[in-house]
Each structure stands twice: as C-alpha cells, then as structure tokens.
Amino acid sequence: MNPYDLLKKYFNAEALRIIATHSRLVADKALRIARNSNLPLDTGFIEEAAMLHDIGVSQTDAPMLCCHGSEPYIRHGVLGRTLLENEGYPRHALACERHIGVGLTVEDITAQGLPLPKRDMVPVSPEEKIIACADLFYSKRVNMLHIEKPLDQIRSELSKFGNSKTAVFDQWILEFSLEK
User: Which residue in 17, 18, 50 sits closest to 31, CA to CA?
Assistant: First the structure.
C-alpha cells in the first residue's frame, strides 16, 4: 500500500500539500516514538496509519485546509474510518477513527453534543496510542505545519477538555519515555 496514493485519491492538490506534509511529520514523530520505546511494535503499520490518519478531512468543510466537503470537521475520524474500510484497510480505519485528541469517549460525545456515533473512539493498541500522541505535536495550520509543539503547550490544549485528557497524555509520555 502506498498511503500517498490514497491521499491523492481523496484530496485536491492544495489540500493534499497541507495534509501530506502534516501526516509525514506525524508519521516521522510516531516512528521516533516507536523506535525509542521498548515495545514490540508494527512500525510499518504505524507509518501507514499515521500517513492516513486525516484522510477523512477530505470530506469536511475545512476551508483553511482547502477542503470543501459537507461534513463538520469533528467527524473526520469517523469519515476516515469509513473511507479506509471501503479501501480494504480495517486496522488503519480504526486508528483513523481513534486519533482525535487522546480519544473520545461516549461520555465526551454526549456531554459535548458532538455529531458522532455514540461509541468509544479511544486508541486501544500501542500503535494507535503512538499515532494519536504524535498527532498532538503538530498543527495543520499552514503557517505552523513544521513547528513541533512543546509538551506544556499540548497539556494546556488538552486541559480545556478536562484533567482526564491531560492524564491520558501524561501516561503516554511515561509509557513512551518522551520526557527524559
């Protein structure tokens, strides 16, 4: 599988440049995290799934990313899951759905009134956690694509959604030895 070819299939040229750049940075960060961990991990899957984690953005109304679909941006994980399942990549599809923040629970979806299916969408495997974690380090804003966020900034952004989200991130920091 060539993830870039799949991205090309779903994004216009302008959006592809943004999403492919962001996804490559996330994939590289995820691979660094994986290599520094002492876990037996599927790094091929990590790279592919990290490259495809935002494929669902192609169907959202996200003008700043040059995407003009009809769906709200918050749905890009579930939309990506559907796209990747239809392409024959069910494992990648789950990583896509579960990468939003540190994951979304039924309680999050209900409390925030999010237009999402009422099910837990939380990273389960170490590979999924690494992809979600790596994604937190990079913005898709064009003027900030290449800037890696410091841990304190990520914690601050997550804290807006509750202490439990920051606690999950801190657990990942320990689990993947990111703070030395």
Answer: 50
